[in-house]
Each structure stands twice: as structure tokens, then as C-alpha cells.
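thought: fold this chain, then report.
action: predict
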Amino acid sequence: MSDDLVIERRGEGDRQYLEIRGTLDAERVEQLAHEGFEAIAAGSSVEFRLGGITSIDLTGALGLVALAREAADRDVAFRIEGYPAQLQTLLEEQGLWSVLAGEDDQ
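observation:
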């Protein structure tokens, strides 16, 4: 299955929303990084809506972790909504789920 990655970004005041649909993998993670870093730079709160992700690999999952860490470094609130179970499984195997889940393990 070769779903394209579709990222729709919108802002409401200082809050940024990214609706992500399709396949998030190594071939498409650069697109996620570009949109995600722009959203983080533009707001004080960013919400990633991941319910439309049909497939994700470890590289795609790590791209989300990198964005969560960037948001934390910039003191920008980071939230995910509607993620596929595969995302949690991939990140738990790496000990990184807490970064996206908003738990402070550090």
C-alpha cells in the first residue's frame, strides 16, 4: 500500500493544528518535519491529529518524537490525538512512548 502523506495545517490564534493522513515512513518523514517545525515556530501550542495515519514505521514515529522534543525545547505545548496503536507499540519498544504521551521520565 503506497498511501501518500497528507498534512493539513491550520492555526487558530496561537494554537497550531496538524491533521496527518496516510503513510508516515522514512520516505515521508521529511515532509512531517518541515510542517511540524513550522507549526512549532508559529505557535505556543501544537496539536498533531494522527487518526488518519494508515501506516507508520519506526522512522516516522521517531520523527514525531523529534518534534515533541523540539516543542519542549521551545516551551511550546505539544499534544497528539487519535494515534494508531502501531505508533505506541513502536515507541514503547524504544522506551520513547513517554515523550509523546506527555509523561515526564527525564
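thought: worth noting. The chain has four helices and four strands.
final: C-alpha cells above.
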